[in-house]
Amino acid sequence: GPVPLDPYGGFPIYPPDGSGFAVKLGSDRSFPGSNRPEARAERITYSIAVPAGVTDYALTYEYAVVFQDPGHVSENQPRFTVKLFDPITNEYVPCGSVEYVADSTIPGFHLSQNSQSQNVWYKPWSPVFINLARYRGRTLNLEFTTEDCTQGGHWGYAYVDVNGCEVA
Questions:
Q1: Cβ-Cβ contacts under 8 Å for 161 (sequence gap 6 or more)
Q2: Are the C-beta atoms of 149 and 103 separated by less than 8 Å?
Q3: Terminus of the chain with fewer CB atoms < 10 Å: N or C?
Q4: How many angstroms separate the CA atoms of 104 and 114, rounded?
Q5: In angstroms, rounded to a whole number, what is the distance separating the alpha carbons of residues 154 and 149?
């Protein structure tokens, strides 16, 4: 049947890679009995075992993001982060990390044309490629996190699809 569309961005909720699957983190809905999102956060982690005997190894994933922008200071805004964690060093890998904070000036985001939305910004499906060859023989954790406004009244959510790893 027809692919459902995101109500704010109008893009398909499934990635364009044809996988037909995506995880949605977060929501624009409130808890039952409340009229506010209540400052929730959601996270999903993928473990990636990089084979020891490869010379080239890469991870590809796609994501789409939707934020309500309340205009708070940056620390209080809804956000979406992607971090690649190396448990051997107990550190995040800088090249695998990104953070988007709700704001009208972030590159690649568009103002929603949904007449019911107020200050909602979205980024349609975007691919990411990470070369993991230098982490041969290690297991890394790829973390996707969405966070609502810390003041509890505004939301953010993301769709994520990890396509897998490419071995050469």
A1: 14, 15, 17, 19, 21, 22, 23, 61, 62, 63
A2: no
A3: N
A4: 16
A5: 5
**Mean of per-residue pLDDT scores for the chain:** 88
Compute the distance between CA of residue 43 and CA of residue 83 in angstroms, rounded to an integer. Answer: 11
**Alpha carbon distance 93, 163 (integer Å):** 20
Specify the pTM: 0.90
Tokens 């910004």 locate to 121
For 16, the token pair is 């364009």
Six-digit token string for 49: 């075992």
**What CA–CA distance (Å, rounded) separates 42 from 79?**
11
Instruction: Mark 40-57 as b/e (b = at least 16 C-beta within 10 Å).
Output: bebeeeeebebeeeeeeb
- pLDDT at position 33 is 62
CA dihedral 36, 121, 3, 153 (to 10 degrees): 0
| Residue pointed to by tokens 């996707």 | 144
Confidence at residue 152, expressed as pLDDT on a 0 to 100 scale: 82
